[in-house]
From TrEMBL:
<keyword id="KW-0808">Transferase</keyword>
<comment type="subunit">
    <text>Homodimer.</text>
</comment>
<dbReference type="GO" id="GO:0016740">
    <property type="term" value="F:transferase activity"/>
</dbReference>
<dbReference type="GO" id="GO:0009228">
    <property type="term" value="P:thiamine biosynthetic process"/>
</dbReference>
<dbReference type="GO" id="GO:0009229">
    <property type="term" value="P:thiamine diphosphate biosynthetic process"/>
</dbReference>
<protein>
    <recommendedName>
        <fullName>4-amino-5-hydroxymethyl-2-methylpyrimidine phosphate synthase</fullName>
    </recommendedName>
</protein>
<dbReference type="InterPro" id="IPR027939">
    <property type="entry name" value="NMT1/THI5"/>
</dbReference>
<comment type="pathway">
    <text>Cofactor biosynthesis; thiamine diphosphate biosynthesis.</text>
</comment>
<keyword id="KW-0408">Iron</keyword>
<keyword id="KW-0479">Metal-binding</keyword>
<dbReference type="GO" id="GO:0046872">
    <property type="term" value="F:metal ion binding"/>
</dbReference>
<feature type="domain" description="SsuA/THI5-like">
    <location>
        <begin position="31"/>
        <end position="245"/>
    </location>
</feature>
<keyword id="KW-0784">Thiamine biosynthesis</keyword>
<dbReference type="Pfam" id="PF09084">
    <property type="entry name" value="NMT1"/>
</dbReference>
<comment type="similarity">
    <text>Belongs to the NMT1/THI5 family.</text>
</comment>
<comment type="function">
    <text>Responsible for the formation of the pyrimidine heterocycle in the thiamine biosynthesis pathway. Catalyzes the formation of hydroxymethylpyrimidine phosphate (HMP-P) from histidine and pyridoxal phosphate (PLP). The protein uses PLP and the active site histidine to form HMP-P, generating an inactive enzyme. The enzyme can only undergo a single turnover, which suggests it is a suicide enzyme.</text>
</comment>
<keyword id="KW-0663">Pyridoxal phosphate</keyword>
């Protein structure tokens, strides 16, 4: 998805002005799997908790770490693989909440043959976007290993922009294409020659997107604000889970204007059904699964212990 620019409560709500505590978020992207946060902004849930939340999306995405370091952001939103690989090497970060509980990717193929199996991909070439970080390749190769397939038995093209790879895939490059679910459905909607072989949201829990901050900067005041943020975010998650996407299609159209609204509705409901959004708490089982994937990818020497990086008490305090 493209960068919509700075996001503020005034971008989303009805213009109500309240005196509240500034709470600055820096995020690695603008994605449908962050929907409960956008709903919380639109519906004033953060303001109810006395927080004036603003969002900045730096380009390139790793500017979120600079924003934490120089104090221009109070927290970062992105993949847990970053604070994991930085732990005890460069900087220690503490994760205090989760928003996306599943992987929001999809696997595209040409044609519409039934009976797809991951084993069919052995010896084939897979295109994978990487402009937003390493998550795409990390998850896909972990999924291969979990299904007893050596990731080295496939060829990869993954050092190019997602839009470029999408155009090349439709033009004949490679055999499969891994991209975000929303972009995949949009491509299928306009291109009858491609179809979705697999939606990764169906492939069990993983803490895909989390909120974190430099560990050394955490104070009781910071924890208090994080607690209130979790309460509001949890309310946003509950709201999305309680409303069929068809009932708020106008909001989805405003949030994602470059995507056909029917596609946005379809993906949102698929995410609702398949556990993309649950609670703000990082799941232990999903955390441990992802840590094994990061170890096998050599990003960490050994899987991190849950308590070494996650402050679970904040998210469950709501």
């Amino acid at each position: 998805m493209g960068d919509p620019g700075p996001i503020t409560p005034d971008s989303f709500n009805d213009g109500r002005q309240q005196i509240s505590q500034p709470f600055r978020l820096t995020a690695t992207g603008y994605n449908l799997n962050y929907l409960p946060e956008y709903i919380a902004l639109r519906h004033g849930f953060f303001q109810e908790q006395g927080l004036h939340v603003t969002v900045n999306i730096p380009v390139p995405w790793d500017g979120v770490l600079d924003a934490l370091a120089d104090g221009t952001a109070d927290m970062a939103l992105g993949g847990i693989w970053v604070p994991s690989m930085y732990r005890d090497r460069v900087q220690n970060y503490t994760v205090f909440a989760q928003i996306a509980n599943r992987c929001p990717l999809a696997l595209l193929r040409r044609g519409h043959d039934d009976g797809f199996k991951l084993q069919d991909m052995v010896g084939k070439t897979v295109l994978m976007k990487s402009g937003g970080g390493a998550s795409v390749g990390l998850f896909f190769k972990m999924l291969m290993r979990e299904n007893d397939i050596d990731p080295r038995s496939l060829d990869y093209i993954q050092d190019l922009d997602g839009v470029m790879l999408g155009n090349l895939f439709q033009g004949g490059m490679g055999d499969y294409f891994v991209t975000d679910n929303l972009s995949a459905l949009a491509m299928v909607d306009r291109n009858p020659n491609v179809s979705i072989a697999m939606e990764m949201v169906e492939q069990e829990d993983v803490p895909w997107s989390v909120y974190y901050r430099e560990t050394a900067t955490i104070t009781p005041e910071v924890i208090d604000a994080q607690n209130r943020f979790c309460v509001a975010l949890g309310k946003g998650i509950d709201w999305v889970l309680q409303h069929d996407a068809e009932s708020f299609r106008d909001e989805l159209a405003e949030l994602f204007p470059t995507v056909p609204v029917d596609v946005a509705v379809k993906v949102t409901n698929a995410f609702r059904r398949n556990g993309m959004w649950t609670t703000t708490t990082v799941p232990r089982e999903g955390f441990n699964r992802w840590q094994l994937g990061l170890r096998d990818a050599r990003l960490v020497k050994e899987p991190l212990a849950y308590e070494s990086i996650v402050h679970d008490g904040i998210a469950v305090a709501k």
